[in-house]
Each structure stands twice: as structure tokens, then as C-alpha cells.
Specification:
The complex is a heterodimer.
Chain A (H helix, E strand, L loop, with lengths): L3 E4 L2 E4 L5 E7 L6 E7 L5 E8 L5 E2 L8 E7 L2 E6 L8 E8 L8 E2 L3 E5 L1
Chain B lengths: L3 E2 L4 E5 L4 E7 L6 E7 L6 E7 L4 E4 L2 E6 L4 E6 L8 E8 L9 E2 L3 E6 L1
Parallel strand pairs in B: 2-11
Antiparallel strand pairs in B: 1-3, 3-8, 4-5, 4-9, 6-7, 7-8, 9-10, 9-11
The chains are: A mainly beta, B mainly beta.
Chain lengths: 116, 114
Amino acid sequence: GAVVSQHPSWVICKSGTSVKIECRSLDFQATTMFWYRQFPKQSLMLMATSNEGSKATYEQGVEKDKFLINHASLTLSTLTVTSAHPEDSSFYICSASTRGGEETQYFGPGTRLLVL
Amino acid sequence: DQQVKQNSPSLSVQEGRISILNCDYTNSMFDYFLWYKKYPAEGPTFLISISSIKDKNEDGRFTVFLNKSAKHLSLHIVPSQPGDSAVYFCAAMEGGSTLGRLYFGRGTQLTVWP
């Protein structure tokens, strides 16, 4: 149980285009979903926290107009990277929690974004 | 299928004693292993890592041991402090330390009591 999927797993796009990444909790309802960006040496930067039905809370330094997050249902959150640039190339990982992140988080497999 | 497993969801240790968090993996292609620490309402922060060419890596109070034959790693915290109370995630990846997919365990909640 407690499986989180991400789609797509791998995406290549041209600079200036937008990319949408989906995060789904497959067998549980996720009241809270988190989006992370993975950096070299595997540090994870929390980008934003989204609660179902409400606006996402962005971490300091993360542009909310560039990284659009929608958590429309208890099983789906989306991250849209708008006007992507090569420096946005990275792994984007989502995780889901059932109770505001106080319990353990279930991590998705990540989406590798390459912007040309 | 869970390729990284943390079979103990919780661990309670008295301050000053050793905390041992365990992690098992199934994929023999994993060659880089990491531990993350997570406080409530925060994202996981990187704690310590180990490459498969080593069997031990130490950083202050934190030591990670790797037993490749058993596909097992453990994180030792000595001495444990109340501030160490957090959820600890074990993670693994292929391809060394380059940017690649992380496979996470489900986490172990460590509670260090005075």
C-alpha cells in the first residue's frame, strides 16, 4: 500500500515551453502533497506544500508564478513548470502524506526534466 | 515493489544512548546510499551518505554502516540527543553520486527522551 506515482517519469522540452508533472497517490487519500527539487549530492529542496482544495504554500525563493501547483483532489497534485529554462533541468519529486506531513511521507519516483 | 525497506516505523531511545536505525534493500545495482532527517512541517534534509565501495562513513555523532552482502545499512547516532527526534528516511540510488532517481524507505520515527 501507500504508492505514489509520478507522470511523466522523464521529459525533454524546449526552452520557453511549459511542462506539467502529475503526482498521484494510488491507494490512499493524500491530504497534503509536497514538491521537491533534487540537487546534486542528492539534497532535496522543498518547493511547496499543497493541501487539497487550497492554495499551495511556497517556500521562500520559489517563484509561485513559475512553478504552478494545483491539488485538485485527494489523490492528485500537479506541478507546472512554466516557461522552462535550462537551469530548471532537474529531478522533481513529490511526496504525499495523510495528515499534514506529521506522519511519514510517501515519495514518488521522481520526474526528470531536461530543458534544451 | 518496495526496493528500500525500513521495517521499524518507530524507535524510542533514552538521551545519551545509541540509536540504531536499520534499512534493507533488494536491488543489487544500488551503489549509493543516503540518510535524510525530517522534522514535522519541513522537508527532509540530507544527513549522511555512503558509497558502495565503503563499509563505513562517519560524520560526528552519525555513522552509517553498509553490509553489501546482506543488502543492509544502518545509521548509528551516538550519543543520542532530544533534538535528534525526527523521522529518518533511508534512500538508495544507482550510478554513484550523480543526479539520479532516489528510492526511499518509508521512514523511521526516532524519539529521544531525556
